[in-house]
Amino acid sequence: MSSIESQPMQSARPPHRKQSGFTLVELVAMVGVVGVLGATALPRLTALAGEARYASLRVAQGALLSVASTAHGRFMIDGAGTQAFEDVGLPMVNGYPGAHPALADAAGLARGYTVRTDGAGSLVVMPNGLADPAAARCYLVYTQSRAPHAPPTVAIGSDTSAATCG
């Protein structure tokens, strides 16, 4: 054998380097997929804000009922006209906390909520961060006891839903 036969043949061209990156078709396809995902996911994500506010109202409802029950239990034991709860004095009405802003403080609702009294024995609680028209439809109402030993009511607004809290 000759030495020419044993050696591989070399090309005159320089070695071919593999290109890195995406082709235009791949980029267009990726932008299309991201666009479709964004168009379907974005409305769902914005709806989550309303669902979160509505859920927070349900939590606030439980907190108000818990404070009312605890204060009523203390009232049954000592009969005091004002109960101290979480270092907040709660004025009592018929053995339960009255509709006073101190009730929201005792329930831990001082931050994150706007609390208003209507002067007729009701306390209205709305999540912060809502525009006024939305806030008018995203609320709960604590109505103080109307008779001795009749518990107060804490109700989510009749037209309140995750959609109206959005």
Q: Could you give the topology of this structure?
A:
Elements: H1 3-6, H2 24-78, E1 82-85, E2 88-93, E3 96-97, H3 101-106, E4 113-117, E5 122-127, H4 132-135, E6 140-143, E7 153-156
Antiparallel strand pairs: 1-2, 2-3, 4-5, 5-6, 6-7
Topology pattern, helix = H, strand = E: HHEEEHEEHEE
**Strands, total number:** 7
Tally of alpha and pi helices: 4
Proportion of helical residues: 40-55%
Largest sheet: 4 strands, antiparallel
Unreliably modeled segments: none
Radius of gyration: 33 Å
Question: Reading side by side through the largest sheet, how are the strands ordered?
Answer: 4-5-6-7
- Return the structural class: alpha+beta
Q: What multimeric state do the chains show?
A: single chain
- Average pLDDT, rounded to a whole number, is 83
Distance separating the two termini: 86 Å
Shape: elongated
Question: Can you walk me through this structure?
Answer:
The protein is of the alpha+beta class and 166 residues long. A hairpin with a 4-residue loop joins β4 (113-117) and β5. It has one domain. The termini are far apart. It contains four helices and seven strands. The model has no long low-confidence stretch (mean pLDDT 83).
